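Batch manifest, entry 17 of 40.
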Amino acid sequence: MINLRVVTIKDIIKNLVKFIAIIIFVIFITRFFGFMSKVNITEYIKNKINSLEGKTFIECINDNVSIYNGSGISNNDKLLKNKKSSTLKNEDIFTRIKNVIFLNFDVTTVSRVLNNEFSVFGYIDNNSTNNVDTKKNKDKTNEEEVRIAKKGNSSTEVIKKNNKDEVYNKVYDGVKIKNESKYKLTRDDLKPNIDFKNKKDIVIYHTHTCESYTKTEKYKYKATGNYRTTDLNYSVARVGTELTKYLEKYKFSVIHSKTYHDYPQYNGSYARSLDTVSRIMKKSNASLVIDLHRDALGSNSHYGPSVKINGEEAAQLMFVIGTNGGGRSHSNWKKNLKLAIKVQKKANEMYPGLFKPIIVRNSRYNQHVSDGACIIEVGATGNTLEQCLTSMKYLSAVIDEVMNK
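Output type: structure tokens
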């Protein structure tokens, strides 16, 4: 006698789902304990809990997921201990432990799941962007500083100490340009006969989020690399926060992403930042999209281009504009260049010396995402954070003049 069993499609799917679930669970456990075997677990959890002080629920998840990519912690970039003692917001010990467990999930997926699941309890604003500052930023910028930045007849003087002579091979109406691309730039290519389509919204992000500056008594930080730190209070991300605050004083709506793209791995930073800015641009139609950097670390770490404006020292700024000279699709690069020239031309009128010559290169630098996308480099390793924060007061005033006048 033969026993027969009818196997339905439903049974096959059910068993297949169970099988896949088991495989995923085994892979997760294997990778999790493989990672934990590389570190001192007690010390690791202690560092993780210390680093969460004063952060919101979603920031905790974002920070802790972003530091792990399946390959372990970099020997050169050890976890930063945050020694500040402040009250935790929207989280408890259970949430802290969660940050250790969620190590291997994609940051976007985790954020999306948490937004969906916890917003009903009032933990998370479903309209918030991952690791982003918006116009709800409560920090107050001195109104008097904004007024001073806007007043005419500013006294400016380029500081020669720790600076370099300007290098350029093209000039358009006083705007100096160093063309390193394969293209021969015509006067028509440089003519700033273009305007911002969207004059209200601005996006700021950082491909190299951990870039930092010369330490001072006021701004000391624990380095996690050579002129690099994961502490967003001392890196170029802090400069982005300052620019955001000033721009909001001028009634702009600003999205500022502080997502790590160069930690724990530096290579691949532009691919990761492209993912971030592309997701932001799905929600925003901003024309001006700024990738805010610090000039790269060169042979002279004391290099700190500066200008004195109204008696205070500010780090000099520099546009870097990409093209399709490297072979990657980028049809709007001339629009990017025209807008950069328009901004720098106004800056030359208001604060001569604030900007160094524009650099035009073959690489695309993710600037295909908008007609007004650009890199702005704020100072170099020899500059202090104080100088860079001061620069943002004047940059914001220039942007306001260009976009609102």
